[in-house]
Design goal:
By secondary structure, the protein is mainly alpha-helical. Helix content is about 50%, strand content about 5%. Strands 2-3 form a two-stranded antiparallel sheet. Helix 4 (about 90-115) crosses helix 7.
Length: about 325
C-alpha cells in the first residue's frame, strides 16, 4: 500500500527489566496508504524514511551530527516531565505513546485530504478505491490486474469492518480504524484474519513451523540458520504451539500476534533504556540520550527523526 502496511506482529513476553528487552516482529504496519505499490514487508521500527516522507527525511539527513544532538537534547528535556534531570521508563513510555498518537492523527489527515475529493466530511469506499486502485485496474497485464484486484477485495473487507455504521463511507474515526486497525479493539479480528492469510501459505487454516519461520526469514545461500532463527523455532515448539500438534490454529495465532497485556510503547521504551543507560541506574540523563543520538533518531521518541526537523517540539 504502502497501502495498508500491516504492523508485523510477533509476540514476545514482556521481559524483566534486568534482561535485554526484546521487541516482537510486528504485523500491523503504520505507514502511508496511497502509493503505486504494496509492500507489506517494511519494518515500522526501522524505516523512518517511509515514516517521514522523502522530503522530510532528506531534510533530516542534511543535519550535522552536532545539530541532531542539540535538537535531541531539547527533546530529552521535554521528556523529563518533572525536570529532575532524568528520564524514567514511565516518562519515556508516555512520550512514545503521545508521539504515536500524533503520527496516526497526522497520517489520517494527510490521506484524508488526498482522498475526500468532494469535501463532504466522509471518505467513501468508491473514493478510496478510485484513488488507490483506479489506474492499476486498467493495467493491460492480467497478472498485475489480478494481484491488485485481490488487494482491493481485501481492503474492501477491512473498510467494511471499520465502517461501524455500515453506510460504506467513513468518518474520520472510522477511516483511522481502517488505516490503523491495531488502535481499535473492534478491528482485532481483521488483524488476525489478514495475518493468517499472509502466513498460511498452503491455505489449510493453520500455521506450521515452516510457514512461521518463512514469514520472518528467507534462507538465501546461507549454509546455517542464524541463532535467532533457531531460537524462533524453539519458541514455536515451546510456546506458540500450545497443544503440541505441530501447528498453530486461529486461537494460538491470536495469542501470538495479539498478546494480552502487550504494550508496544513500553517495550520500545525498555529497549531504548537498555541500549542507552550507560551507568545502568534504570533511568537516562540528557547526556546518555544525546550520546546515543544515532539510535534515538530511528525510534518513535523522535518520530523516527521527524521531531528533529520540526520546530513545534522546541
Amino acid at each position: 500500500m504502502d497501502l495498508l502496511l500491516l504492523l508485523l506482529v510477533a509476540a514476545l513476553c514482556i521481559l524483566q527489566s534486568s534482561s535485554k528487552p526484546m521487541r516482537r516482529k510486528e504485523r500491523v504496519h503504520h505507514d502511508t496508504l496511497i502509493n503505486n505499490e504494496h509492500d507489506d514487508e517494511k519494518n515500522f521500527n526501522l524505516n523512518y524514511e517511509a515514516f517521514l516522507g522523502q522530503e522530510e527525511a532528506k531534510t533530516f539527513n542534511q543535519l550535522t551530527p552536532e545539530e541532531s544532538k542539540q535538537r535531541l537534547g531539547k527533546i530529552a528535556e521535554k521528556i523529563d516531565e518533572d525536570h529532575d534531570g532524568f528520564v524514567t521508563l514511565d516518562e519515556m513510555t508516555r512520550w512514545i505513546k503521545n508521539a504515536l498518537k500524533r503520527w496516526i492523527y497526522n497520517d489520517m489527515e494527510r490521506q484524508w485530504q488526498a482522498i475526500d475529493h468532494n469535501s463532504d466530511a466522509y471518505v467513501s469506499w468508491e473514493e478510496y478505491k478510485n484513488v488507490t486502485f483506479g489506474y492499476i485496474l486498467d493495467e493491460a497485464d492480467p497478472n498485475i490486474s489480478f494481484n491488485y484486484r485481490q488487494m482491493m477485495t481485501r481492503d474492501e473487507r477491512r473498510f467494511k469492518m471499520a465502517d461501524y455504521d455500515g453506510d460504506m463511507r467513513a468518518n474520520k474515526e472510522e477511516f483511522t480504524a481502517f488505516l490503523h486497525p491495531e488502535e481499535f479493539n473492534y478491528m482485532k479480528e481483521i488483524i488476525l484474519l489478514e495475518a493468517m492469510e499472509d502466513i498460511d501459505k498452503n491455505g489449510d487454516g493453520f500455521i506450521d513451523i515452516d510457514e512461521y519461520i518463512g514469514d520472518m526469514y528467507s534462507q538465501t545461500g546461507e549454509a546455517n540458520e542464524p541463532e535467532w532463527v533457531k531460537t524462533e523455532r524453539e519458541q514455536f515448539r515451546e510456546f506458540r504451539d500450545q497443544n503440541k500438534d505441530g501447528r498453530m490454529d486461529k486461537d494460538e495465532t491470536r495469542d501470538w500476534i495479539l498478546p494480552a497485556g502487550y504494550d508496544h510503547a513500553e517495550v520500545e521504551a525498555q529497549h531504548l533504556l537498555y541500549e542507552s543507560d550507560t551507568d545502568q541506574d534504570g533511568r537516562l540523563t540528557k547526556q546518555e540520550i544525546v550520546d546515543k543520538y544515532d539510535f534515538f533518531v530511528g525510534s518513535q521518541v523522535t518520530d523516527f527523526g521527524e521531531a528533529l526537523v520540526r520546530h513545534d517540539e522546541f
